Structures are given as structure tokens and as C-alpha cells.
Amino acid sequence: VGNDSVLTCPPNSNVTMVTWKIMPKVGGACALGYRADQNKTDRTNCSDSMNWKFTPDCNPALEIQQVEITHEGKYICEVVTTDGNFDKKYHLIVLVPPRLTLSCDVEGNPVCEAAAGKPAAQISWVPESNSSPENKSHDNETVTVLSRFTAESTNLTNTTCIVSHLAGNQSKSITC
């Protein structure tokens, strides 16, 4: 989320036509097209955040600016050349890194929250805790994970929450 993404087409010379067919999971389909004989590009129902990376005759890559969850879906590039037809298919999955917060509850126990991540984050503790995380799903397909530190020893001074996620790992320490 928030980064730019570039999807490439099969590189070929003698391009006659290039079409990007985009079928997001949410919302309607869109298409970008290029015809070499007319040196003409066309777009149907595509947002301004989707466009040719360079020029379609030189490099028919698709650039998605400021990727959002709504960009998830199927992307197909079809290239027609004098040598034949070629295609490349993508299934775009958008990762959302969670926001990590670590605090102390009213009883003086550490509480770790990995908010609004996609997919759900995994939470672990140092020293080890036998806590069970609670997951809360949101309408935008993100998940908030909450974990309360529980340990047999009550004289701990420093506790570290480790959040593991496909978009990157994070950790914070606290003394309650």
C-alpha cells in the first residue's frame, strides 16, 4: 500500500497492438490499449493512477501509482506482434503493514497491538508468553491483532513485542 508498482509485458519487437486488461476484486474492469499502426493509446474505465510506464511502443509496462487495496485483482497484458501473440498474467495482492503500539494495561501488563495489517500479523513476546492473540477483521480486509503478555514470573522488568508480517517485521520494548 502506498508504493508504486510496475507490471511488465513480454518484451517483443514488431509490436502491432498491446492491451492491458485489469479486473480488480472490487469495482469494474478497465483496459489500456495501444495500436502501433495509428500510434494511438486508449483507456476504458481506468483510474488516473494506472498508466503506461513509458511509451507502449517502446516498453508496454503498466505503472500503478500509490497502490491501494482496491487495486488487488487480475492484470493481463496481451501483446500482438508480427511473430505471434503473447500474454503475461499477474494476480496482484496488496500488503498493508500493521501499525504497532505497545502499552501497559491498568494491571501493569504489556499489551501489544498490530493494527490494520493485511494479512494478519503474528505477535510473539520476549521473554516468551503463553498469551492467545485476539483478531478483529475490518471491512477493508485488514486485521487488527491484540496480544496481552502473560507470564508466570511477575518480576519482569523489560518485555519486547515482536510483530512478524510479510510487509516487514517490527518490535518494541516496554517496562510496565
Automatic annotation (TrEMBL):
Q: Name one Pfam family in it.
A: V-set
Q: Chief localization class?
A: membrane
Q: Which UniProt keywords apply?
A: Disulfide bond, Glycoprotein, Membrane, Receptor, Transmembrane, Transmembrane helix
Q: Where is the Ig-like domain?
A: 60-175
Provide any one GO MF term from the record: signaling receptor activity
Q: PROSITE patterns of this UniProt entry?
A: IG_LIKE
Q: Which domain of life is it from?
A: Eukaryota
- State if Disulfide bond is listed as a keyword: yes
Where do transmembrane segments lie in this chain? none
- Please provide the Gene Ontology terms (biological process) for this protein: regulation of neuroinflammatory response
The way this protein sits in the membrane is described as: Single-pass membrane protein
Tell me where it resides.
Answer: Membrane
The family this protein is said to belong to: Belongs to the CD200R family.
Q: What is this protein called?
A: Cell surface glycoprotein CD200 receptor 1-A
Native species: Dryobates pubescens (Downy woodpecker)
